[in-house]
Amino acid sequence: MQLSITGKRWLLTIHLIFSAIMLGNMVTFLILSITAAGTENEQLVGSCYQIMHVLSKTSVRASTIGTFVTGILLSIWTKWGLFKFYWIIVKEILTALLLILNLWGMYAWTMKALAGFEANMNQLDMYMFHIDLWIGIVIQILSLLFIFAISVFKPWGKRKTTLKNSL
């Protein structure tokens, strides 16, 4: 089944909106984590961790699932297919990484940081939670930017052999 041009444009628009929300979430996480690391105000630190945890349970999950589902539908319902092009395969691998980081990692890391903060954990332990969170945030931002670039430039071309027309 192939979408009409109008259907493809609508689905692509929805996909881009979810993708933009994902990137916006991670930029927000970056700003909040920098704020939490750079302030002496304990109330502000706690608020930053609470906001990140709420986002990890809501907007991060919704945008990740929305991006994943609309991306798969775009691949299946357009000429691109799931496995016809190397650039799409790379996007799928990076998207799988982002699914794990967003659905599990961000939730777990923000929950640990918030719990540590509420338990008045020592600075070294809090620093370790913060480093885990930063690593996740940076990996996600770089992966999303790389996915956006791949989507525009479509490098590496078409695969020579396909799996049953690569779906």
Structural commentary:
By secondary structure, the protein is mainly α. The chain has one domain. It is 79% helix and 0% strand. α1 packs antiparallel against α5 (123-153), α2 (42-57) packs parallel to α3 (59-77) and α4 packs antiparallel against α5. The longest helix is centred in the N-terminal third of the chain and has 33 residues, at 5-37.
Provide a compact summary of the structure.
The chain is an all-alpha fold. 79% of the residues lie in helices and 0% in strands.
Topology:
Elements: H1 5-37, H2 42-57, H3 59-77, H4 86-118, H5 123-153
Keywords: Membrane, Transmembrane, Transmembrane helix
Transmembrane segments: 12-38, 58-78, 85-107, 127-153
Protein name: DUF2269 family protein
Q: Please state roughly what percent of the residues sit in beta strands, choosing from under 5%, 5-15%, 15-25%, 25-35%, 35-45% or over 45%.
A: under 5%
- Indicate the structural class: mainly alpha
As residue ranges, the low-confidence spans are none
List the domain count as a whole number. Answer: 1
Tell me roughly what share of residues is in helical segments.
Answer: over 70%
Query: What's the helix count?
Result: 5
Compute the gyration radius: what is it? 19 Å
The helix/strand order is HHHHH
The biggest sheet, with number of strands, parallel, antiparallel or mixed sense and barrel status, is: none
How far apart, in Å, are the first and last alpha carbons?
A: 10 Å
Number of strands: 0
Arithmetic mean pLDDT: 91
Note the overall shape: elongated
